[in-house]
Specification:
The protein is mainly beta. It has one domain. It is 14% helix and 48% strand. The chain is built from five helices and 16 strands. Strands 9-8-7-6-5-4-3-2-16-15-14-13-12-11 form a 14-stranded antiparallel beta sheet. The longest helix is centred in the first third of the chain and has 11 residues. The chain is globular and about 50 Å long.
């Protein structure tokens, strides 16, 4: 089993709270403080696309990432694709693709994962992990392939009424307010996908207050989220990441701190698009 390179994983952990082998972020029994007069979550985010550039040390633009979401029939598909560019691509080609198939639940007040498909290509090697939910049976099935050969398959039981959100679904649910209102000084403790029976890890997230935001960012128009993750997820000595959002909760830039061999890995929004706008 080959390991994922920490630079890409670190960066996309910053923005979407991804974990190198299992999705990380978000399970809960009830939704947060969603405005019931707001449009449904799918209508808010459908056709949205963000593009990010990644750098570390004195190097900029070593990788690019794109995340988007589109409606397909009665469901939605969100895709995150990350790939090396420039000299980094020449030294070692790498591409990560994550595809989440999603449905609206609770009358359009939140997204729920139907399946989450992770694909990684490093040089000539390929790895795939597919997680599928059967809510009628109350199960989560995880299949793993290496170089297109099925290596393992496991099925776990999920409790009735509990949501396990993949990182892309969590990205939209968080911004919509499913986990609670986003406000300065608020703290969140968020469950992850289980790694096995009775094996869950909490992610800690804190929105800094206005004074701290100004001291760090020089301005006071948006939010900064401090996230504490398992140190082993992306090879960090501290497990700390910092994300800067604008007032519309678009992640503008971020830093994954103390990454092994790289130091702080930086990401910056370079393009935002929405069909029809």
């Amino acid at each position: 089993m080959y390991k994922r390179r920490p630079i890409l994983i670190a960066f996309f952990t910053v923005f979407f709270f991804l974990e190198a082998v299992h999705p990380v972020f978000a399970a809960g029994e009830i939704s947060g403080q969603v405005n019931r007069d707001s449009p449904a979550i799918g209508a808010v985010f459908s056709s949205e696309e963000f593009t990010y550039s990644v750098g570390f040390w004195i190097f900029e633009g070593v990788a690019t990432g794109k995340i988007n979401i589109r409606k397909e029939g009665s469901t939605y598909v969100s895709t995150l694709r990350a790939y090396t560019t420039g000299i980094a691509r020449w030294l070692r080609h790498r591409e990560d693709t994550y595809i989440s198939r999603i449905e609206e639940v609770e009358g359009g007040r939140r997204f729920r994962t139907l399946s989450f498909d992770e694909n990684t290509i490093v040089g000539s090697r390929e790895k795939r992990v597919l997680t599928e939910f059967d809510y009628d049976r109350g199960t989560m099935r995880v299949k793993k392939w290496k170089n297109r050969q099925l290596r393992s398959e496991v099925e776990l039981t999920i409790a009735p009424g509990v949501f396990y959100d993949d990182p892309l679904v969590a990205f939209y649910n968080f911004r919509y307010g499913v986990y609670g209102q986003v406000e300065e000084g608020r703290r969140y403790s968020i469950k992850t996908f289980p790694k096995g029976a009775d094996k869950e890890v909490d992610i800690k997230l804190r929105i800094v207050n206005k004074e701290e935001f100004k001291n760090r960012n020089g301005e006071n128009d948006g939010y900064i989220a401090d996230v504490k993750l398992d140190k082993e997820l992306f090879g960090s000595a501290s497990g700390e990441v910092e994300v800067v959002f604008d007032r519309n909760l678009v992640p503008l830039n971020a830093v994954a701190k103390d990454i092994m061999f790289f130091g702080d890995v930086r990401g910056k929004l370079v393009e935002e698009a929405k069909e029809g706008h």
